[in-house]
Fold each of these.
Amino acid sequence: MHDRSGRITVQQLTKRFGPVTAVQNLSFTVEPGSVTGFLGPNGAGKTTTLRMILGLIRPTVGAAVVNGVPFSQLGDPARVVGAVLEAQNFHPKRKARNHLLVYAAAIGAPDTRVEHVLQLVGLGEVGERKAGGFSMGMRQRLALATALLGDPQILVLDEPANGLDPEGIAWLRNFMQSFARSGRTVLVSSHLLAEVEQTVDQLIIISRGQTMYNGPLEHLRKSQQTRVLVRPSDPEKMLAALHEANIYNVESMQDGRLAVAGGVPSEQIADLALKAGVSVYGIEEERANLEQLYFSLTQGQYTPGTVPQQFGPGQQPYLPPSVPPASPPPPPYQPYQPPSPYQQAPPPYEPPPPYQQAPPPYQQAPPSPYQPPSPWQQQDAPPSTDEAQQHDQGGLGGRS
Amino acid sequence: MGNAVKAEFRKIFSTKMWWALLIPAVAVAFVANLGFSALQRNGQDTSGVTIPIALISLGASFSSTSIFAALFGSMSISGEFRHRTISTTYLTASSRGAVLTAKLITYVVMGLIYGVLTLVFATLGALVGGGSSALPSGGSWLLISLIGIIVIMLWTLFGVGFGGLINNQIAAVVVLLVYMVVGETIISTGLNAGGATSVPHYLPVASASDAVIKFALDQFLSTLRVSSDVQSQVAERFSAIGLPSWWVGGLVFIAYASVITLSGWAISRRRDIS
């Protein structure tokens, strides 16, 4: 019998489909009481992993357990796990209410439960309509209603925001958070960090079937690197003053600014400038955003090609215009150290060296054609502090 | 298990397929028996002899309904793959075995419904076409019906297993339909031309229809007022062309249905649902 813990444990999970390795040696734990985001680019192995957890796909190696036992041994699985796998699993000619009545019977839930879940997801008015005539958003809601029939302890959602309108996404976000706040477990996959950033507490990032990051979102957020961009009247003199103060993580930018990395406070830099008799025309802190961090974590999915060293600024699609040579010290509790967003993505299995002599950003491979365009690719300017603050407030403000 | 069976029945009765296939099946049974029995009424006018001609058309009706029943069964598992409901079905059941067992139980019942309604409409057709004299005696009628209904039930299970093997609903339906209607006839013709004249009787469609129609034919011959000499001559003729006894056909078809159903079951239990 299962232990009712609400915990999902994945141990050294590997799945090969013929010559293709979809998931490779994946291990993580999903704890109750939190929303865990399961991120990775399309094709990273997310769906395969979720389906292995749910007993729909047999792992080649390793095991996934829910409440301490494999899914197939849960006995009454729909009362433990509810899953939204795709918004397409309906008979198009079956009415929404009848669809739910089928699975209510399978679970052994009373028929009154069907009305309850229909109301819960906002489909109370359209229960007599055929699922085939539903919009994508309505299908997602019906899939969620089906998952909730057994009043499960754990909710697994595979890309649930696909096809949802902004209103639906906001509703789903609130739903997942309140579900988790009631002490239950939510595991939600997405290929876009921005989609789940405001919802999740924990993050598992995978790329090419391997775990790249597993830990609280807050830790990833804190590991975001800040650097100070200073515009001195005399860059040479300023650089000399910084070196004198043992600050070497400095880079000259094309526009004459200096980028100082390594967590040196801007006040210290301003003071050094004053001492050196250099005027400071502008000083600002630049923060790499989570999206860039996520992108660098999942970049390893594609083999970097040989790219000419010199690129115009317009041809650097996803990186800030210069390279700081440092990355933050690793928090000790994280099995996978997130690399700096400015670094080249790490090879599989190897945590990135913390103080690597970073290659110039333009050596990184251009995005593969499979890579979905990210909104910030079009960004010319580095993300502003306002934006970073916005992320901090969004959705996470309620928790301490 | 009760829950899984209830869910399967709800699946069947919440879409139209079960009656979309049942209506043509019983319509064919009704019309065929009506027409065939009407022939007998015409014959009776001239000779004054009544023969239970509906024995033959009744037997043939079970064979024709078998096609509809097999197609219906073949959509049970493959339809769930087509509409991607198989994931939800497995996620809401205590085990895959429970789902598959429930499907077999449910489709046995559906096969019985198809069989019994075929019997009802075939009998009605015979009564309308030829009057009660076209019908065989109660005992023969009951025996043929029993065999016919069992054959329809087995074809339904054959279909379920076949759909479990193929998974692709359209392929399952097309392959089964083409095979049952013309495919086996073509194969038989080829085998006969090649000299293997006894082999075609051991193919699925032939063995199943032998079980019903050969039995009906035996009954029919025994009711004719012909001498036992003639009857034994006919029997010799049948065995000369390699036509096995009705029960041989029945056993062969039970073997086919079991193998297909069990292999569809075994594969469905293990298959990855991606």
Amino acid sequence: MSKNVVRKTARPEPSFAQRVKQGWSGGSIPMWFMLLPTIFFIVVISIYPFVWIFHYVFYDYNGFTAYFIGWKNFTRAFSDSIYWYSVLHTFEYAVMKLLFVLPLSLVTAVILQKKRFGSSVFQVIYFLPTVISSAVYSLIWYFIFASYNGVLNGYLETLGWISQPVDWLGSMKTAMTSVVIVAVWGAFGNYMILLISGLAGIPEDVYESAKIDGANGVQTFFHITLPMLGPVLKVVILLAITTAFKDYQSILVLTNGGPNNRTHVMFSYIYQIVFGSSASTGNLQIGYGAVLSIYSAVIVAIVTIPYLRASKKMDEV
Amino acid sequence: MKKRFAALLLASVVAVSSMAGCSLGQSNSSSAQASQKKTSSVKTKVVVWTQNRHDSKYMNQVVSDFNKSNSDVQIEYDIQTEDYNNLISMAAASKQMPDVMSEVDRDHTTQFANSKIIQPLDSFIQSDAEFQKVNEPSKHVYEGLNAVNEKIYWVPCGKRSGSRIIYNKEIFSKLNLQPAKTLDELVKDCKEITKAGNKKYYGIVIPGASGPFERWIEHSAEMSGVTPYDYKNGKYDFSGYKPFLKAVRQMFSDGSVFPGSASLKIDPSRVQFAEGKVAMEGNASQEATVFTEQFPAKMEWGVAQLPTLDGTIKGAESCSPNNGWMMSASTKDAQKAWKVISYFGSEKILKGYLEGGYTMPMSSYMEKAIDKSKTGRMADFSGAEYESVYPVAPSVTPEGQTYEDALWNACLPNGPDIDKTISQLNTNYNKALNEAISMGKVKRVVVSNYDPLHPDEGKVQYLDK
């Protein structure tokens, strides 16, 4: 009896051609076609190497010969003081960078968003470091920071602010500040442009209503601009945090992690372990570097996941 | 529907073009190869990679002359200066190895040989009497450097000298100074020069960002009988470096080191010397061409022996064999590849190379064959009888920093404690050595009759424990 009911109500299975037609008209096939290039590159460039490093975490591997050493790479990391100092330096670098880069990009975005004379020119100037290779602009900063006949020391001496040239990159007291200055300079223009696009999306009539209600500039900024910028700000902060934790290219150019490892961050140290330093190009430690990469990925995740949860409120605009 | 079709078309174009991008170079190169095949159908192409850029003008001419005059081999000569060792590793992994490659450092020679991506040259050398006469390969077999398991993988046709103190003659003459014989004199001279310079010039420059320890400090220690590896007892021992680290730290404290040296790269530091802003720089024979061609010095400069701990030479200074060529294990025509190596190592080519000042002669035959008056300032670096090639100490991967980085950091004014640094290095290196031996990665090197003045003459033993 029940079989008969099923027979009566069941639709015939759609043929392959029909399913393709449905997928086509429903938009799922074009969607997968459009995602294909991105998926391909994510698999090849991100997922495959990440899976690949797990293969060597139990080995002492120099790129040619792999010696099985069990858990030694994992236990060694716990007593590696340079690594743990580099973790501390990463937090120091990231906090200092975020402390300056976010307010600076927000303020410049608010100032330059309104069409004023020269605002587009300044937008382009501030955005330029984003399109220049960090290795190139870091090299320029290397000469700006030079102790002897350096541009920065020259200005400071002319202004009478210093009597002796400062060894910006060579002194353990100033090296971290110097690399943070370069990082802030290189990053804030990018976030500024993202925030400007967010600001452009806030309807003008909201501001007009606030004006009619008698709100001043500061009140408008904190009660209208900031809350309505929430979704964009959330993305910008997330990008800023993850980038700050992953930065290392400009550090390698400016100080190579020195002096005395003072500017080594997690990934500059891992880079030297895996690819070698100027002193040691032969003793590559790919297995140990893989373990440190996993630890570092966990550390970055520990920082970003709570932020993602906390930032859900920012969507509620 | 039209919009969706357009989007699909666009996505397909992006997908196809991104894939095509990967193979675009290949199709271009294959068409280039095809056209080359047409022009040189009877010639076998031998691909040569080198990491040397300084000799490109001379070597390009050598290759061009060879290609014009040779009927069966066509050399394709590529200069690969960026990340050379890794490039060879990747080429081997992707089966795109060149046929012939300029030599690599000791660690990579051993790695490449053990991985069988390069092949021994012994049989080719034995059948080439002319090559033997000119380069004396049997006299220059250095296990772990150019030979692995007593098989030769490259023959040094030249060498880079050990380090010297290169000094500004005008400043020295003005202050009536002579190059220092002892480390203490060096510290004192640097202080005196800096004081006299009154911020216009300084005592010495050390490129803190470009292998500062290896430039001259390590070599000064070698000449004082101090090496990182204790050859007699077969273990690492860094204890002897203490006075050298103290001396450099003293120079920093005195303000006699050029400002910003701690973060200075090699070329900017060379420029400061060439401009007369520093009185001394410690470096090897490559500076002969640097201060005559790359950054011509604006004053008269001289070359002096490095200072030692007490003014006497108690150990040999290491020089670096170079200008050697390795052969890929996967070369299709090894005889033709050897023909190229033999040509690069021939008397005619080497004579021009050595007289051009690109390197210094390694063999006694070439030492006599060249006209030294043509070698320019390279002559200032040659003829040091206290130079030698050390037995290669076992290569280990210690926890923490390499000794070069750690010892340099201990030289810095606010650097770590010198004694602690040395003690930590001794622990880390010997722990790594013992582990590497137990894993079968390396063997303990012991030279029971080790003579620091003649380190290459001892009987080297390779122990499993």
